Amino acid sequence: MNRFSYARPGSVAEAVREVAAPASKVLAGGTNLVDLMKYNVERPAHLVDVTRLPGLKAIEETGEGGLRIGALVTNTALAYDPRVQERYPLLSSTILAGATAQLRNAATTGGNLLQRTRCYYFYDAATPCNKRVPGSGCPAIGGVNRIHAILGTSEQCIATHPSDMAVAMAALEAVIRVSGPGGERDIPIAEFHRLPGDTPERDTNLGADEIIVSVELPAPRFATNYTYLKLRDRLSYAFALVSVAAALDMDGGTVREARIALGGVAHKPWRVPEAEALLKGVVPERGAFSLVADRILEGAQGFGGNSFKIDLAHRAILRALSQAAAGTPQSQTDKRIQ
Amino acid sequence: MADLDLPSRQGFAPDAALPTGLPGEIPLTITINGERRDLHVRPWTTLLDLLREDLHLYGTKKGCDHGQCGACTVLVDGQRINSCLSLAVSRDGCEVTTIEGLAAPDGALHPMQQAFIEHDAFQCGYCTPGQICSAVGLVKEGHAHSAEEIREGMSGNLCRCGAYTNIVDAIGDMLAQETSQEAAK
């Protein structure tokens, strides 16, 4: 690990000033940042420990019937919060599908959104990587790419965003509140993470002088017909090869509104609102789901090792929508897929 | 800030090549196994390295050092975490319990330690301190009620000897005891 200076600000305003220092990084739970520092992938000159910032560890009601989640709420505290379990069970289930109890106890809501890809080449400082060293190349293209993206890739980068939590938040249309020198601003989660394009070194649209202060969930609508289906190489503690968060707002026997977000397939949680619209007013059944899956996966491209993901994602979307329509969400303990 | 040559830090190799402007040691007050310690640490010291290298508490093991194996699991403010992924300075004011702190002051083993012995829940023993700390955390969390839920809740602790079956039995035994004690109240 490289040497760095250390600050432990006592207020958000002070933290914002500290992160403006060159090559600074924010430390919260540390579960990803400390790991990356040990690999010399992250080499901050200045570490801003935000763990003591007041007011960021609470989950509060918003005026609009939603919940505001402080950036420092741990993944465990969020997943087991009774309000989240009752009103946003998709989010609770999705968080519990990720990582391990030890990691969830330390990892925070803000940090989860800002975690970096687990691309093998990004993690190996001995290899080129456009995300780590812009312009150095992408060995995953033409290399080992079983875990890589099939949607929204560029010639510069085919990495995926590894978060489970962010996939549910994408489906629920969460809004991320950030604080910077000019005050606070809100970023809808769909605009928070970026596609790699020609700047794969930038994962998100968070400014270098901004920190996340909270994540707001709109009023709940998807507490009955939902599921998070996560497919991976082992049954626990593995990142998704493909995951699907599906949520249906039902009006009797037909769909009023559908939300479908995919994890493990792109540089950000993948949503296609036009595909979701195909289910509006429709009786939820397999034929309709197949058209939706076709539309979501339009333009999907495999790179050899990950080409299997296209068919896998198609089937996962069908299965997840069936689970959501039946009101039988995937258990995150009993991994058998019904 | 002056570098302090505390007796507890004799194992620390000073980094002579530290660039100027970087901090020396930062004060840290931390309670470890019930004992309050006033220490000074460099900010890049992990909680795991503090425990092992500075405080000579070798019970907590360094396996992968990347949060993947769980051998370094300790309880911080009652919650199990990977001490290898936690910088010690960020735990200022916290209470840490390691495997050395689970037994009673008279040496009587913690019931989870006893359950691991009775169920032969280890072979080489390297992962065992992390397994036991993790299992104590799991029981305290109260979310596991079946063998399946124990396996899921313990997925952050690897055992290369493959003692998983007996580890699950040992924890299951503890959970059953907790449940019967609750019922008796």
Automatic annotation (TrEMBL), chain A:
GO terms for molecular function: FAD binding; oxidoreductase activity. SMART domains: CO_deh_flav_C. InterPro entries: CO_DH_flav_C, CO_DH_flav_C_dom_sf, Diverse_Substr_Oxidored, FAD-bd_PCMH, FAD-bd_PCMH-like_sf, FAD-bd_PCMH_sub1, FAD-bd_PCMH_sub2, Mopterin_DH_FAD-bd. SUPFAM superfamilies: CO dehydrogenase flavoprotein C-terminal domain-like, FAD-binding/transporter-associated domain-like. It holds the Pfam family FAD_binding_5. Keywords: FAD, Flavoprotein. Residues 1-222 form the FAD-binding PCMH-type domain. PANTHER family: OXIDOREDUCTASE (PTHR42659:SF1), XANTHINE DEHYDROGENASE SUBUNIT C-RELATED (PTHR42659). This is Xanthine dehydrogenase family protein subunit M. It comes from Muricoccus nepalensis.
UniProtKB/TrEMBL annotation, chain B:
Transmembrane segments: none annotated. It holds the Pfam family Fer2_2. GO terms for molecular function: 2 iron, 2 sulfur cluster binding; metal ion binding; oxidoreductase activity, acting on the aldehyde or oxo group of donors. InterPro entries: 2Fe-2S-bd, 2Fe-2S-bd_dom_sf, 2Fe-2S_ferredoxin-like_sf, 2Fe-2S_ferredoxin-type, 2Fe2S_fd_BS, Aldehyde_Oxdr_Iron-Sulfur, Beta-grasp_dom_sf. Keywords: 2Fe-2S, Iron, Iron-sulfur, Metal-binding, Oxidoreductase. Residues 26-102 form the 2Fe-2S ferredoxin-type domain. SUPFAM superfamilies: 2Fe-2S ferredoxin-like, CO dehydrogenase ISP C-domain like. Gene3D superfamilies: 3.10.20.30, [2Fe-2S]-binding domain. It comes from the Bacteria. This is (2Fe-2S)-binding protein.
